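Reopening this ticket.

The earlier resolution said the output was attached, but the attachment link was broken on my side. Pasting everything inline this time so it's all in one place.
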Amino acid sequence: MCGCWQFVSVWRERQELRQGKVTQESQEYSFYCTSAAKEQYSAEELLQVIRGHWAGSENGAHYRRDVSLGEDASRISGSGAFVMATLRNLLLGLFELQKHRGKTAAKTFPSWRRQLTQRQKLQLLTQAI
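Inline output:
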């Protein structure tokens, strides 16, 4: 048994804003499957779960990797793209670890990255290994 009990369809409307003006619009259906029984969650609760997922992954990690590290603009392909994604994740992980340990006063990844000297960056990498 696969454990898939429901399929959920969500209609999305998206507007991309640049300098306060809509530059691109899109509309689409997104489909999800869940192991939750129909009686377990209401439609509103399932929607909140889906929004929570996107808030964490797309708006959180992906946004940081793209905006702070220019991932979407990268033209590296093949195994090089995998290596670069791994390095980007390592950098973000080191930042979060430094914040968690109270070793940085920086609130954002870009400000943390700008505050570090090349020597400090190398030290962080060697300590992580």
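Reporter confirms the inline version is readable. The chain has two domains: 6-61, 79-128. The longest helix spans residues 43-69.
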